[in-house]
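[job 4471] stage=fold_predict status=RUNNING
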Amino acid sequence: MSYYKILKQNTFREGDYSIVPIRMEDRYSIMKWRNEQIYHLRQNKPLTKEDQDRYFTEVVTHLFDHEHPNQILFSYLEDDTCIGYGGLVHINWHDRNAEISFIMDTSLENDEFEKHWSLYLKMIEEVAFIELQLHKIYTYAFDLRPNLYDILKKAGYNHEARLREHVFYQGQYIDVLINSKLFNVK
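[job 4471] inference complete, writing structure tokens
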């Protein structure tokens, strides 16, 4: 397993679930889920195995040794099986903030969406606030998954902005919602 140089701890656990530095062996599952869920991602075409291999070789493998990588990606595991992935992306080290990224196995979306988002948020907050000492983390989400916003609210995220008609999706413009959480807010 690879390790992020910037992190003292590289594995974060909540019961039977954990996040570990993104594993090469999970790349095709991740590709499959991204292609199945392209509707809510900033991805303009389905990924191929060649695309995924190139991304892991040219981008992901170089993240581990950086003092200040622009993203830190994790495989989300149940025991040792990858059931999702995500991380902190668009990390702004000067302003100490980052966007949260997360997708899960598409088959889990209907019945276990809240469970996995809630578990994942607990772990990624530990990475962001404890390990990296970031000040703020946020989500940037197309207004297509209303069940996400209640989960974020329950986890202490505040609705920060609605970017009206910000993305073009299936022939129409839709809003983007930004929700955020600050470290040590009382």
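[job 4471] summary: The CA atoms of residues 10 and 20 lie 6 Å apart.
[job 4471] exit 0
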